[in-house]
Amino acid sequence: MTIDAAKLLDYPFPTSEHSYTARDAMLYALGVGLGSDPTDEAELPYVYERNLTVLPTMAAVIGHPGPWFRDPATGIDWVHVVHGEQSLEIHAPLHPDNPLRCETQVVDVEDKGPGRGALVRWRRRLFDAQTGALVATSDSTLFCRKDGGFGGPVRPKQPATPWPEGSPTASVESEISPRAALIYRLSGDYNPVHADPKIAVEAGFERPILHGLCTFAHATWSVIRELADGDVGALESVQVRFKAPVFPGQRLRTDMWQDGDTVRFRSFTDDGAVMVLDGGQLELRSERRAK
């Protein structure tokens, strides 16, 4: 099968309602990697029910439809799909046991050309089910590596935003748990490329890879902890481009450049030899960022 852009843009995601518990929030934080040091009081509020705080990046997985692109009706060769880009805008804090309504839609399909793949951009919006207030907006881009050449128009390449000059404001390095993908998938993304060695090899990887959204959340937390005193309420929005997979058990270093409320960041593995996140940009709320 091949991609039919018009059908993809009309893909029938059902509107759904989701509730998550304090246990779900703590399991998500553990999957991201918090709590590796049980004496770390900065991370304890996210993995302990007393005065529990929810990581805002959990909004990227609440109501996640899972690997919906495995549906043959999409025309996507799902084995060769990777997460290309991710952005998240936080409109209101997350609270356990507060029902959320999730609306999902494909918003754009781009043909990169034969042999160059295709980009499928989709959006999820979370609303407070009781008040109707918008809580979070999550935009994701799938890079469908084997699906180029379906006939879409060629688009001009957008110029890259210049990267900050000079040394980073800060750098944070930490180890990704060897079990990270197996824990993180329990928050809703059951794509077998993150758990099944055979599927991972079929997809072109030497072994199961970490979820892109887990790398995304790990780097976001590193920035917030380092430059906003660990106050997740300071997060307004964050976006990244995925460059290479992270394997559970690797060390991840995030370099960050701060200019007022804007933080640009990149993440690396293999002692800086492999860039795994590029184009990172995080916006802090002025009234809550560290001074």
Automatic annotation (TrEMBL):
Residue ranges occupied by any Peroxisomal multifunctional enzyme type 2-like N-terminal domain in the UniProt entry: 19-145
Residue ranges of the region described as Disordered: 151-172
A family per Pfam: MFE-2_hydrat-2_N
One GO MF term: (3S)-3-hydroxyacyl-CoA dehydrogenase (NAD+) activity
GO biological process: fatty acid beta-oxidation
All copies of domain MaoC-like, residue ranges: 164-267
Family: Belongs to the enoyl-CoA hydratase/isomerase family.
Name this protein carries in UniProt: 3-alpha,7-alpha, 12-alpha-trihydroxy-5-beta-cholest-24-enoyl-CoA hydratase
High-level lineage: Bacteria, Bacillati, Actinomycetota, Actinomycetes, Mycobacteriales
